[in-house]
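[Meeting: bench + compute handoff]

Bench side (C.D.) handed over the final construct sequence. Compute side (W.E.) agreed to return the predicted structure before the next meeting so the bench team could plan truncations. Sequence as handed over:
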Amino acid sequence: MLTGRCHCGETTFEIHGDVPQALTRCTCTLCSKRGHLFAYYDPASVRVHAHPESDRVYRWQTKLVAHHFCGTCGCATYSDSPDFQPDGTWDGKTRRIAVNARLLDHFDAEEWPHTVIDGRNLW
């Protein structure tokens, strides 16, 4: 099991699974400004514990993706999104959780292999 937390600790998470073989860096305007590296999981394998008053959500464009961040320390924590395929398609129902791998305990996300998706042109 993996664990992680935002800087202030008001949002923590547990992941029943391993770090993916590669993390993902998205080039869309939001992700490139936030600078996180995503580790994707099935929603059933991620448990988030967040204080309701500090768990903030940002949605933009289609409003299909809920980008969560801590309202106290500002860390981008995770996103709940459609399970978009590399070509930008989605089956209309399957979702996934993208955890900010930089928040994983005892893990250096910068040193882990990562792939880049062209979010600036896909969505």
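W.E. noted at the follow-up: The CA atoms of residues 53 and 71 lie 8 Å apart. C.D. will use this when planning the next construct.
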